[in-house]
Amino acid sequence: MSLVSVVNAVKTYGTGEAAVHALRGVSIEIEPAEFTVISGPSGSGKSTLLNLIGCLDVPDGGTVRIEGRDVNGLDGSSLAALRAARIGFIFQSFNLIPVLTALENVELALQLAGAPAAGRREKCAETLTAVGLGGLLDRRPNQLSGGQQQRVAVARALVKQPALVIADEPTANLDSTSGTAVLDLMRDMNAARGVTFLFSTHDPKVMERARRVVTLTDGQITADEFRT
Asked: CA 4 to CA 31: how far, in whole Å?
């Protein structure tokens, strides 16, 4: 069974002459442990497709299944529960809470997923240590570099052991050195733990490391390249 199955997904914003056809019958399967990039120019439908796969939105037509579960008929609270339990997110703007420490930012993901308090902090500390931040648990975001903040975001995404991590332009706000380090970290997590990563990016460095690059143009898949 595919981890993600999208079949003939259609998404339109607006109506009449002002309608924007963001996705026009997109079908794609994502298997466990993939390290895949969704690429394409601005307006191609990348973000819309990731929003559907990440259960942040539902298609107007077609189906989206996560681990075999059809998300189309789920209400808002059910979609939120699915996201909290099975999907991690990494954003270009880091999206850390400024008043919380690195440890507290990561722990919040487990709280939202309903994890019991017993052992929660220890698990978060272990995950931060795994991404190279073991000595910075008590630092707030403004006390961390951009690369370190993105490592906190990676730890936050991974701590709940999700089926899928969605990364939207994760290197966009990082310098070249930090961006490369974060990418190598995610590749290591993919190889060592079998974490599935799905990226949206324009960054050549991300595409160079991907094992699969799917290209969207005007809401349709125009290329799907597997690499060894």
From this structure: 7
